[in-house]
User: Fold this.
Amino acid sequence: MPRKRTQKFYFGEEQEQAVIRFIKAETEEEKNKIFNEYLEEPLTIMIESIIRRYKLYRRGFTFRDQHADTMSFLMTKAPKFDPTANKKAYSYFGTICKNYLMGSIQKDVKDFNRTVSYEDISTSINENPDFSYVIDTSPIDYKEIITKLSIKLEEFVENEKLNENEIKLGYALIQIFNDFDKIFQIGEGNKFNKNLILLAIREMTSLSTKEIRVSLKKYRKLYDGIISDFLNY
Assistant:
């Protein structure tokens, strides 16, 4: 049975120290004892809170199965936490869970989109210039920009005061940029359509196109600042 909590917060200093002991434990028996007594309950609450708060529900999964799947993945990553890096296990575990859930949903979306023919996508979306972007011949390395933007995005979402829609969009953007090599299909003339990206974001966030555009306003200043840094470098 999990140890009964004696503190106000479900993941506090007691749990932080338990994580360190868990990582350093030399036997599976010791690890299981620490997990069952100190970590099972707070990590269960953490995963439940993330799924419900950001509405990260996977198609075809019950909540229980999705929760168990996320917990299993988290425990494979737990040993990689470095307590000497001046980071909290709470933040590390939360980021792992959010990125895994967003990545799983994104994969589900891509698998679903493979079953939908290109003709099924609205012609008005495909022909609308608002949904396409032309990459210019600037000497800026767009891969370097996206890598830096991903890092800044995660810091921004974690630290900025955002509303619920902006938070959901932020984590969707983080996951998309993390997999940009697989997602951004640059074609003839360095042009790619954004329609599938938009559809993926809508599926991942459950936001309307209008809500996405409104929420993007929070992130434009961040993007402009990163581009400006590269131009002035």
Strands lie at 132-134, 191-193. Confidence is low (pLDDT under 50) at residues 1-8, 116-126, 130-139, 185-191. The chain has two domains: 1-115, 120-233. Residues 1-115 form one domain.
